[in-house]
Amino acid sequence: MRKTLTIDLPEDVYTRAEQRAAQQGDTLPAKVVKLVEQYSECEPAANVNHTPETDSFRLLAALNRGRNTTPVGRLNREELYDRAVLR
Fold it and tell me: Pick from 33, 38, 35: which is nearest to 49 by CA?
């Protein structure tokens, strides 16, 4: 059994994604199916084996690491730009 998913994308995003899929010898719907399969089967981002197609997982993991969950107080300019998360 298959399900139909309808998504609303800005035209420029759709065009770029369609062109990139074609450059990789695939279709955009096939790419979306692969991404949804990866998303539905993956463990948390730290346990994912990254490939070029899973850049989105790498981005989400980096954003998660960059969250400031512990207040650090007021930082001066040197401290602000010398945080480990920015290295």
Answer: 38
Query: Tokens 């991404």 correspond to what residue?
Result: 35
pTM: 0.46
What is the identity of the amino acid at 1? M
Whether 57 and 42 have beta carbons less than 8 Å apart is answered as yes
In a domain, 3, yes or no: no
pLDDT values of the chain reduced to their tens digit, one per residue, 87 residues: 888 888 888 898 899 989 988 998 999 999 888 888 888 876 655 555 656 556 777 776 666 666 656 666 777 777 777 766 555
Number of domains, the chain = 1
Q: What distance in Å separates the CA atoms of residue 76 and residue 73, rounded to the nearest whole number?
A: 10
